[in-house]
Amino acid sequence: MAGRSILYLGGSEFAAEFCDKLKGLALCEQFTGSPSLEIPAKTPESVDLIMFEAGPLIPQSGQTLSTFIHTLSDWPVIAVTSRNQEQRGIAAVRSGAQAYVCADNIIDTELESVIEHAIQRHKLLVRLSERDNNVLSILQSINDGVIVVDRHGHVLDINPAARSILGLTARQKTSTEWDKAFCNFAADGKTQIDHEELPLVKACRGQKFSSQTAVYRAPGEPDTILSINGQSLYDSSQTLVGGVVTFRDITDIMRRTVELEKRAQYDDLTLLPNRRLFTQQLEKAIGRSQRSKRPLAVLFIDLDRFKSVNDTLGHDIGDELLRQVADRLNKNLRIGDFSGRWGGDEFIVCLEDFGEQRNAAAAAQKLVLVLSEKYDVCGSEVYATPSIGIAIYPGSGEQADRLIKAADLAMYQAKKRGGGRFQYYSSSLNTKLEQREELELGLRHALVRSEFVLHYQPRIDVNSGRLIGLEALLRWQHPRFGLLPPARFLAILESSGLIHSAGEWVINTACRQLASWQHQFELPDLSIAINLSQQQLKQGRLVKAVAKALADTALDPGCIEFEIGDGYIVGPTVGRTPNTARRACTWRSPVAGSLRYARCLLSARWIRALSTASFLTSP
Question: What topology is assigned to 266-425 in CATH?
Answer without folding.
Answer: Alpha-Beta Plaits (3.30.70)
